[in-house]
Every structure is written in C-alpha cells, then in structure tokens.
Design brief:
The complex is a heterodimer. By secondary structure, chain A is mainly alpha-helical. Chain A is 71% helix and 0% strand. Chain B folds into 2 domains: 179 residues, P-loop containing nucleotide triphosphate hydrolases (Rossmann fold, 3-Layer(aba) Sandwich); 63 residues, no CATH class. Classes of the chains: A mainly alpha, B alpha/beta. The interface between A and B is medium-sized, with 21 and 24 residues.
C-alpha cells in the first residue's frame, strides 16, 4: 500500500520525493560508489562491524555483571545504584565526550597497524569513541536481562539441586544459567536493538565520515533523497534481521541447552 | 532409625507468628514406610522439609538413619509437582545427581538406564518433561531421587495431581521398589486410602499447630488388597479421626512473637 501511494505521489517526478524505481535501483547496485563516500555496501559494512564490535564488548561485560548481580545480593545492592545512575545517560549524549576522551583513536592505531592508515580498511573506521558509546548503549539491557533471568530462577529448582547434592558451581552452571537463558536472550535482543539505533544516530553526528547513518545524513544534505531513502530501508531491514536472528538463536538455545555433550 | 524429638517450626507472617508445627515426636525403624497423613495446612509438608534439611527447625532434633558405613545419609526427595528440570531430557534429569557427584559419563548412563528401565521409562530417555504425561513425569521424578540409592526417601504428595488409576499404579510401583530395598520412606499425603495402602506406619497430624493426633501401625497381609475387610477397617477408623479433626477445626491462631 505504501509503495502504491508512493508511486502515485512521485509519478511526475516533480515533487521532493524520488520514485520507488530510483530507490530500488540504488538498493540493487550496492557496490556502486555513491557521492564519493564509498558504496552502499561499504557503508553498511562499516556500520555492521562497528555494531558487532561494540555489542560484543557489551556482551562480554554485561553478561558476567548481570550473572554476578543476579546471584549475589551484595553485588546487586552495590551495583544497582551505579547502573541506575548510569543507565538514563543516553549513549548519544556521551558521543562528544567520548570523542574528546578517546580522540579519534581507531583500531588501526590501537593495534599498531599504522601502515593501514592511508588505505581503505575497516579498522580505520572503528573509532574507540564510537565503540564505547555502542558498548554504553548495549550493556544495560544485557545486564538487566541477565540479572532478571538469574533472579527469577524458581526456588524449587534450587532446592531440588541442593537435595540432589549439587554444589554451588554445578547448580550455577546447570540450573541457574539454563533457566535464565530466555531472559538473557531477551536482554541481548534489547541490547543489539539499542546498539543499532545508537550507531545510526551517532554516525549522523561529528566524529566519522562513513557508515550508513553518515550516508543518510550526507545524501540528505546533497538532496539526494533516493540514496537517503535507500539507506533508511537498509537500516530498517538490518534492525529487523538482528532482532529476528537473536530470537532464533534464543529459541535454538532453549532446545540445545540441555543436550548433553 | 529415624528419630524426631520436640520438633517445632513457626513462620513470621503479617499479623504475627504462625505456629506451623509441633512439638512433634516420633521414631521409625530403619527400612520402614511411614505415611504422614493430615488435612491441608496441617504442617505435613513443613515436617518433610525439615527432615530434608530444606528448612531449619525452631527447636527440637532430627536424627536420620545413617548411610552405608555410618556415612551421612543420602536423601531422596520427590516434590508434589515433580519439579523436573524442564530444559533437560528425562535421561539428563535422572543423571543429574550422579553428574553432580562427579560420576563419569558411561557409568552414570548405565545407572540411569537401570533405574529408567525399572520405572518403565525405557524409550522415553530423550523426551522432555513437557512431552510426558503427569504419571510419566512423576515416574521420572521418582527415578531421579532413587538413582542415588537413598537411605531415606521423602515424598511430598507425589501422586496427588494424578488420576486415580495412574496414582494407584504408581503406588504399586513405589511399594514394590521399597520392598526390594532397605530404604526408609516418609510419604506425605492427605489421601487416607493411599496411606493405608502404602504405609507400615501412619502418623495423623492435626491442624495448626501440626501435632500428632494418632499413631497407627498398618498390619495387613501381603500383597495388600484395597478390597479386603481389614483394609476397609483401617480406612474407616482413620476417616473417623479425620472427620473429628476437620469438624473441630480451629482457626489458625496467630501467636504473639516471643
């Protein structure tokens, strides 16, 4: 319906909006250089790699922290305050600060691969500041989901484990974690959704000149609305894919988690 | 010997302290089958949880029959709803206590297979709890608590949510298993017929605070028949005690905090 309406509105080619055909043309040729900022595929790749790296960092910190906070009352009392203070601080609000702190340091510099600086390498586009705000955006839903999962383990399962002679570690590994998995995956889904929103917004701000968010803003400035809309569509599709993908993994894990080695 | 002396338990609730149990005293010899019979809310589950060490008594002592070679006894416990781990297959559920004890894979597989076979669960090893009927689930729960050869087996109304036929079937299995073993069984129920069919000894608990109002030895010829006159005799006699309990049922009285 939207496409039909869109086609009608743009049939004369006089309005502000480009026709669906033009947008489709861009989507179908992702390898073509656009506006001298790289191809659609390249910019998508940059955004994806940024999100994946930032999200991984959030997972690496968020899951252990959430497990710890769910399991230990002392850790919860202590860390909840910190989390609740930090959480409302939107990741985007931290972007300028993050750029100041991390300068424009990229993974190329971090890894000491200076010879790559003047080439087109994905590592040049992985600014530490960018990764940090992605981490910030993703980590809190993951912490809270994981903590929630651990805390909502039914007491009876813990009693069963206790009576059946399971030690603390064994219970944690074989009762608490599997029983928390659905909540953990829920947290991961929320987390990656947040990361994706954060990266698109962040790429529209100073600090980078690549990524799908940058492409959307830049094409807007040059009034190339066909590219802009193509970018928006790609953002929506990838966001949905992330969410569905994690949902799928979550369901899969529910089946797999008990399969014995 | 299972010995319980002066056991009491109170719970803090809004509006004061509820005296849930005791004082309760009894002793049962090793290898016996004891049923704790009582109306809902008489503290029978509390008593069982105290025996299992899931709760701590306010006062009094429990001494469980010692394990092999004087070791601390191995406890088996079956919850009302089975409480199987839903994310584990039947086999993994049954192997859980063996795995927790660090038994290697091939041995625990063998042990689990033996008990699953005994419980009539062969062919369902790879099923998940939600794929099983209520009876099968309780069989699995029973298998999981028996796989470690417990010295004392505690069961909390394990068959109460099953239909009569399945429930009687499982009563039969449990009784057969018990006769072949030296395990002391404590079985909590509110079903008089179940108690008379299963038990060698019956304790009737009265309402809050749960106190023993009757102690009965069930002396019936084997195999037990639910249709025999002696069986009915026990049934009627215990039902009378029960009726008296329920009709004279006092409201739970909050006791002032000490």
């Amino acid at each position: 319906m939207l496409v039909v309406w869109w086609s009608i509105v743009t049939r004369n080619g006089t309005g502000m909006l480009p026709s669906p055909g033009k947008v489709l043309n861009i989507l179908l040729h992702p390898g073509e250089e656009l506006l001298s900022v790289g191809s659609l595929a390249w910019n998508v790749e940059v955004s994806l790699v940024r999100v994946v790296v930032g999200f991984m960092a959030a997972v690496a910190v968020g899951i252990p922290t959430g497990l710890f906070m769910g399991y230990s009352k002392h850790a919860r009392n202590f860390l909840t305050l910190m989390v609740e203070m930090a959480r409302p601080l939107s990741a985007i609000a931290l972007l300028p600060l993050s750029i100041v702190i991390f300068k424009a340091k990229t993974f190329t510099r971090l890894l000491g691969l200076d010879y790559l600086v003047y080439r087109r390498s994905i590592l040049n586009e992985l600014q530490l500041g960018m990764i940090f705000i992605l981490f910030w955006g993703g980590v809190f839903p993951i912490i809270l989901g994981t903590m929630q999962g651990v805390r909502s383990v039914r007491k009876i399962y813990l009693e069963v484990a206790d009576i059946l002679g399971a030690g603390r570690f064994f219970t944690f590994r074989h009762v608490i974690i599997p029983s928390a998995l659905p909540d953990i995956f829920h947290g991961l889904r929320m987390g990656i959704g947040r990361c994706w929103m954060v990266i698109i917004a962040a790429e529209m701000l100073p600090g980078t000149n690549s990524g799908i968010g940058y492409l959307i803003r830049y094409s807007y400035q040059l009034s190339r609305y066909d590219i802009m809309i193509a970018g928006i569509i790609v953002v929506a599709l990838i966001g949905a894919l992330f969410s569905r993908g994690l949902e799928y993994l979550g369901e899969k894990s529910l089946v797999l988690r008990s399969k014995e080695r | 010997m299972l010995k319980v002396t002066g056991l009491t338990r109170t719970y803090r609730e809004s509006g004061g302290v509820v005296h849930a149990l005791g004082p309760v005293d009894f002793r049962v010899e090793r290898g016996s089958f004891l049923c704790i019979l009582g109306p809902t809310g008489c503290g029978k589950t509390t008593l069982l949880r105290l025996l299992a060490g899931l709760e701590k008594p306010d006062s009094g002592g429990i001494s469980l029959p010692a394990g092999a070679g004087g070791a601390s006894p191995v406890i088996g416990y079956v919850f009302q709803q089975g409480a199987l781990f839903p994310w584990m297959s039947v086999r993994s559920n049954v192997e859980f206590p063996l795995r927790a004890a660090g038994m290697d894979k091939s041995r625990r597989r063998k042990e689990a297979e033996k008990i699953l076979d005994m419980m009539g669960l062969s062919g369902f090893e790879d099923s998940y709890p939600h794929q099983l009927s209520g009876g099968m689930r309780q069989r699995t729960a029973l298998a999981r608590s028996l796989v470690v050869n417990p010295d004392i087996l505690l069961l909390d109304e394990p068959f109460s949510s099953l239909d009569t036929r399945t429930s009687q079937e499982l009563q039969g299995s449990l009784r057969t298993l018990w006769k072949e073993s030296s395990t002391t069984v404590v079985f909590v129920t509110h079903n008089i017929e179940e108690a008379v069919f299963l038990a060698r000894k019956v304790i009737v608990l009265g309402h809050r605070p749960g106190r023993i109002v009757r102690f009965e030895n069930i002396d019936l010829p084997e195999p037990r028949s639910r249709l025999s006159e002696e069986f009915t005799g026990y049934l009627v006699s215990l039902r009378r005690t029960f009726e008296e309990l329920v009709s004279g049922e006092p409201e739970p009285v909050p006791v002032k905090p000490r």
